[in-house]
Amino acid sequence: MAAPSKKVFELFVSKIPWTLAGKEMREYFAQFGPVKKCLLPFHKETGFHKGFCWVGFTTEEGLNNALQKDPHMLEGAKLQVQKHIRPFVEGPRLSKDAEYD
């Protein structure tokens, strides 16, 4: 039997109302397939999230199911949902103030 795939099939979601949290986003997208991760970044100064997130499904089917639904409505707002082209890679992050050579 083949080992389970470590590949994650990702969506990029924007126009998220500030009243929603990562837990609600994960629960909403779980109706389309198993969610492996939901990354909702927060603004350090305001404490509010930035209005976008990445949702990673364990299967391509979950990703395709989510992409087929339109519109995605949460708390009266229409979310913008698209396939994430460049997968999020976990690891060290560079500061936005970092200098590049």
UniProtKB/TrEMBL annotation:
Residues 9-86 form the RRM domain. Pfam families: RRM_1 (PF00076). Keywords: RNA-binding. The keyword RNA-binding applies. GO terms for molecular function: RNA binding. Transmembrane segments: none annotated. PANTHER family: HETEROGENEOUS NUCLEAR RIBONUCLEOPROTEIN 87F-RELATED. This is RRM domain-containing protein. It comes from Pagothenia borchgrevinki.
